[in-house]
Write a structure and sequence with these properties.
The structure holds two protein chains of two kinds. Chain A is α/β, with parallel strands linked by helices. Chain A is built from 15 helices and eleven strands. Chain B contains 17 helices and 16 strands. Chain B is of the alpha+beta class. In chain B, the strands form four sheets. Chain B has a nine-stranded mixed sheet with strand order 2-6-7-10-1-11-12-13-14. Chain B has a three-stranded antiparallel sheet with strand order 5-4-15, with no helix packed on it. A two-stranded antiparallel sheet of chain B has the order 3-16. The chains are: A alpha/beta, B alpha+beta. The interface between A and B is large, with 47 and 35 residues.
Chain lengths: 498, 520
């Protein structure tokens, strides 16, 4: 209750016809936007002219706080805009506000937030109002789009944090190839996995925004060079041209058999099957493939992401910025770590602390070999699995501009985005949860993490509804650099639906 | 990355590797007869680049206002990412080449985690496991000793913390946070405090000559951590202790000596030496424990996922090797070959070592470069004498150093020519030198000589005759003595003439003229 009224007070959505009272009321329930832009909302000119965009609260904005949904940064104002923020503004979009998320991007249900949980808007206005999760960590971004608070939203996807909420909320969500969109100004959770993603009501909106931000930025040392982008784009050009023109003949879609675990809700599998039938009827070839490392991917992801998180969050000490809690009188101040502990314990939430401790352990001298290094070996296996089944070789690994193309490989993979429809919001949504429920939350990422580990583009597109009537998403995954092709296939799925 | 992850598992042992003993034969040291001292040094030298290692911030000068050269990245703001400064890489490679080290075609960056107020991000970016260069060596002049260099690695410097006892707070200045450092790790090849001092001085000279660092311990652009162990002659190596925070070569040498005595005293009593990190108290001249092995932190090294491995092409390394500035050893042999004495070379190079090191590898022009220019087409001996004796002497008299020398190469060269040709006397030359120093004129000495009427008076000049006649008239008694046959007394009259001529008259001409006038 408290979090919702706090949210209402900080929000001012009354500046344009779009920001009607009903939208204000909607956000009060859904809690998707945590701060709103009260400046002039008329958008400029450019490819994104007329588009309203919400920005996930872990992406830096100069004029709005960037809290990462954390008490540690609750009043933090970044001195600079993230590259993606400058780009969307420059291209004419108007930024409506910052979107709620799981703290520092860690979560799959958007319940770990100092602003309170996000409520899935799909539940509003139905016969039986249900409070279900919008997914995480970009729950606010997905919910804002689904609730009509904005046309598109920027999110981040480290292990599924754009695709999962897209699937639960019934919107489109794209995680691009790693290195395609600049991470300058994106608060790091796990540098080797973080990607800026786009959510929107339909594929063409997502494509429009993605095109505006998928440019090389020298300030991001992990950005793919213009040469590599060019090489990749050339290797998918012919396939892209054909699919774009509506000709799906020759498109080979792989179905990885490991992505249909027993936990999968039957209605989910059916939805995916229906989509595949549709594509097949239009000429695509569906091919079963195997990615044998899949069962190990989830553990590897959690070890790697937690280890990197423990490193990236070491900077939150309350000295240069952020929450500072003074040690009480008589406290032991001899070690710096003792002084920091007060700020960090108060400022960082339980889920974040849990992952940081696990990550610290994985990097410790005793555990490094068996956890961190082992997880990296598994990651290499996951990558190799994908490289083996794709038709085109990855532009990242070849020196020549000519990609190797095999006739046996597939162009894209397709699988369910999540094992279920949106789960109900757990009781005690202030972030407290038992160990078992947090493990359950981790399992939701099982279908999305492999593409994250391999840095591949992945798109979640609405694909019907489950038996409970809630949205189901299907994921399209492509080889590194084939973002445009993945989007085109997504559009084909969308067309099949309408 | 997996390979160097495995390298991490080789636990650090308390004793040196077996290599140490095989390299050097033992020489008895009278301070600790029957004992051997083994020393290894880790030097951290600030890279003299205009900008920091991973950010665009400018490197600060001494005395910069605190926290003015700090970017969002340096202060570890959320959303910032590192950007490797290619100048730092180039200067690191130059250093590695000068140390005869193997520059690695591939090197990588790690994060070393610990919490300290001068480390905003909670980790230091370093190259522990895959450094930029390995297996170098540095030859020390004295004793013909070679110290092996284990590795050279690039890493970030921390900010500076100052404890203010009055307010009981620690003030943090982040100007230095993120500045590039070269960590140069030696093998334990030194056997005495003097060798350690000699090594550090040689390293300083080398770094300055390639332009990669100021290498100044007092100013903080060079810091040393020393590892010391002792063992009875012929016995296995002992447990080493690390001494940190040494701020001068002299203190380092004293600290090593103190630590040697401390360890020998312990072992003499049958007490084993515990491996620990120690500081040095200058006043008490003793080392004290900072941290024991149990308190040694686990740095949780992790490859930095933001920084791709650094690949250096062979052409790049070769180009740097080809354009290497002259190293001290080469300078020394070249000057000796030009006919300079050992002493001349020492003085010249010593003065030269004080020259400015420019940013980004721009080489400063010091005393050696000055000499090189001045001696072109001239007698080297004359050139070096004028520079090291006259010029330096006059500068010292005025409490100035060579860096403040206003006399241009052209002026110096012209002056030497004037004296060598006999156009002015040596004495007049010194006057001209003094004149330029006091007036800061840019006029050439030829012009000054004319303006000041210092042009040497030749033997058949009328003014010489006039001065001599004036002197004879001024000193009638001495003149009479000379006329009577006591020629020695003519020196006194000569003095008078020299004074009147203000040094422009040549002594032998004056003598000849006086004698002519007095004996005719």
């Amino acid at each position: 209750m408290l979090s919702r009224s706090r949210c209402r007070n900080s929000l001012n959505l009354s500046h344009s016809p779009r920001r009607s009272a009903s939208l204000l009321a909607k956000n009060a329930i859904v809690n998707a936007l945590v701060t709103s832009n009260t400046h002039d909302l008329s958008s400029g000119s450019g490819p994104l002219s007329g588009l309203s965009i919400a920005v996930k609260d872990n992406i830096c904005t100069k004029s709005l706080p960037t809290t990462c949904s954390s008490r540690m940064l609750q009043n933090f104002l970044s001195p600079f805009d993230a590259t993606v923020v400058s780009l969307v503004s420059k291209h004419g979009a108007s930024i409506v506000g910052k979107a709620n998320c799981d703290e520092f991007g860690m979560g799959s249900l958007n319940i770990h937030s100092v602003h309170g949980a996000v409520v899935n808007p799909f539940g509003l206005g139905r016969d039986v109002e249900e409070r279900r999760s919008a997914g995480g960590s970009s729950g606010g971004s997905a919910a804002a789009v689904a609730a009509g608070l904005c046309d598109a939203a920027l999110g981040t996807d480290t292990g599924g944090s754009v695709r999962l909420p897209a699937s639960y909320c019934g919107v489109v969500g794209l995680k691009p190839s790693y290195g395609i969109v600049s991470r300058w100004g994106v608060v790091s959770f796990a540098d080797s996995l973080d990607c800026v993603g786009v959510l929107g009501k339909n594929v063409s909106t997502v494509e429009r925004v993605h095109r505006a931000i998928a440019t090389y930025d020298a300030r991001d040392p992990t950005a793919a060079t213009p040469l590599i982008r060019e090489n990749a784009s050339q290797s998918f050009a012919s396939q892209l041209g054909r699919v774009r023109s509506g000709d799906l003949n020759g498109l080979r879609i792989g179905i990885p058999q490991e992505y249909f675990p027993s936990e999968l809700q039957s209605s989910v599998a059916e939805s995916v099957r229906r989509v595949l039938d549709g594509l097949q009827s239009r000429g695509a070839t569906v091919v079963p493939v195997s990615l044998p490392s899949t069962p190990y991917a989830l553990s590897a992801y959690y070890v790697i992401s937690s280890a990197e998180a423990s490193s990236n969050l070491a900077r939150y000490d309350g000295i240069e910025y952020g929450l500072r809690v003074e040690p009480p009188p008589g406290a032991n101040l001899t070690k710096t770590a003792n002084v920091y502990a007060y700020s960090r314990s108060r400022g960082l939430g339980k889920e974040v602390q849990r992952r940081m401790l696990l990550g610290t352990y994985a990097l410790s001298a005793d555990a490094f070999e068996n956890y961190f290094l082992q997880a990296q070996r598994v990651r290499a296996l996951v990558r190799a699995d994908f490289d083996r089944i794709f038709r085109t070789s990855s532009a990242l690994h070849s020196n020549s501009s000519k990609a190797q193309i095999s006739s046996e490989g597939v162009d894209v993979l397709m699988h369910p985005s999540a094992i279920q429809t949106a789960p109900p919001l757990p009781d005690g949504v202030d972030g407290t949860s038992t160990d078992s429920s947090s493990l359950d939350a981790y399992v939701q990422d099982v279908l999305t993490v492999p593409a994250s580990l391999a840095g591949l583009p992945a798109l979640s597109v609405p694909a019907g509804q489950g038996v409970d009537g809630w949205p189901i998403g299907v994921s399209v995954v492509g080889q590194w650099g084939s973002d445009e092709l993945v989007l085109e296939v997504g559009e084909a799925i969308e067309n099949g639906h309408s | 990355m997996l390979a160097h992850g495995r390298a991490r598992l080789i636990t650090r042992t308390t004793t040196w590797g077996r290599n140490a003993h095989t390299v050097r034969a033992n020489q008895e040291d009278s301070r600790w007869p029957g004992w051997e001292l083994v020393v290894g040094i880790e030097v951290h030298a600030q890279i003299k680049s205009r900008r920091k290692l991973f950010s665009e911030s400018l490197a600060s000068d001494l005395g910069s206002t605190p926290n003015t050269n700090v970017s969002a990245f340096d202060a570890a703001f959320p959303g910032t990412l590192p950007h490797l400064n290619p100048k730092c890489v180039e200067l690191g490679v130059r250093t590695a080449v000068a140390l005869n080290a193997e520059v690695q075609r591939k090197s990588a960056f790690d994060r070393k985690h610990y919490f300290y107020a001068d480390l905003p991000s909670g980790y230091q970016i370093t190259q522990q496991y895959a450094p930029i260069a390995r297996n170098g060596r540095l030859r020390l002049e004295k004793g013909d000793i070679t110290v092996r260099i284990k590795q050279v690695q690039l890493e970030q410097d921390t900010g500076k913390s100052t404890f203010l006892p009055r307010n009981r707070i620690t003030a943090i200045d982040l100007n230095r946070a993120g500045v590039g450092l070269m960590e140069i790790v030696s093998e334990p090849d030194m056997r005495s405090p003097e060798e350690a001092g000699s090594y550090v001085r040689a390293l300083q000279a080398l770094l300055r000559s390639v332009g990669s660092s100021d290498g100044n311990m007092e100013q903080g652009s060079l810091r040393c951590d020393v590892n010391v162990s002792v063992n009875r002659t012929g016995r296995p190596l002992g447990t080493r202790c690390e001494i940190k925070n040494l701020n001068s070569v002299k203190n380092m040498m004293v600290a090593i000596t103190c630590e040697a005595f401390r360890q020998i005293a312990l072992l003499g009593r049958g007490v084993p030496v515990t491996q620990e990190t120690r500081g040095f108290d200058e006043e008490k001249a003793e080392t004290y424990s900072l941290r024991s092995k149990e308190d040694a932190p686990d740095y949780r090294y992790m490859p930095d996922p933001n920084i791709p491995p650094l690949f250096l092409r062979k052409e790049y390394i070769d180009a740097i090797r080809k354009d290497m500035p002259e190293l001290p050893a080469a300078t020394r042999s070249r000057l000796l070959a030009q006919g300079l004495s050992q002493r001349d070379v020492e003085v010249l190079m010593d003065v030269d070592s004080g020259r400015e090191v420019g940013y980004d590898g721009e080489l400063g022009r010091g005393a050696v470069a000055y000499f090189d220019e001045v001696s072109k087409g001239r007698d080297s001996k004359a050139a070096v004498n004028w520079i090291t004796h006259e010029l330096l002497g006059q500068l010292a008299f005025r409490h100035e150093t060579f860096t403040e020398n206003p006399i241009s190469v052209e002026q110096m060269g012209d002056l030497i020519d004037l004296v060598q040709r006999g156009t002015v006397t040596g004495t007049s030359g010194k006057s001209i030198l003094r004149h330029i120093l006091s007036t800061r004129t840019t006029d050439l000495p030829s012009k000054i000589a004319e303006d000041l009427e210092l042009v040497a008076v030749s033997g058949d000049g009328t003014s010489l005759e006039k001065w001599c006649q004036d002197a004879i008239a001024a000193l009638p008694e001495e003149a009479a003595v000379v006329r009577r046959g006591n020629v020695k007394v003519v020196n006194k009259i000569m003095g008078h003439v020299m004074k009147a001529s203000r040094g422009t008259a040549k002594a032998q001409d004056v003598r000849a003229m006086l004698l002519k006038l007095l004996q005719s």
